[in-house]
């Protein structure tokens, strides 16, 4: 069993990009199971971000059916190979005006594999990814694979190649909270 400080997991380095801003002033370390404030000076919006992590727990109910629950993770926790973790990013707009075109970039932690199709974002949003060596985010990453006959074929990238996820949220209304999440599995 591995003991890992949640603060050391790569997904913790939450990067936030608010469109039309080159830098986000005053964003402290976001991962302490606390929160951070990002300000969009053009729209006078104020976004408070919070990142949380949960571990999937599978149990059987009285009828023998599997029941999935999520256990919040804080501080030093023990994770094992094949454990599934869910990261949730919450963004609360403290201002009166909407914040538009919010992009939340999350690295897939080393030692973990992104769970394909596990990301969820508010309606109207878009999820894109980077894979090993890629310079840009795309919706459906692909790789070139050399077949036994020598031909090269383009195929969907395997989950193990995913290195970053971008959660694009079209708008965060004033005085509202939005949530986005994704899952990874410990190798």
TrEMBL record:
It comes from the Bacteria. This is DUF11 domain-containing protein. It comes from Cyanomargarita calcarea GSE-NOS-MK-12-04C.
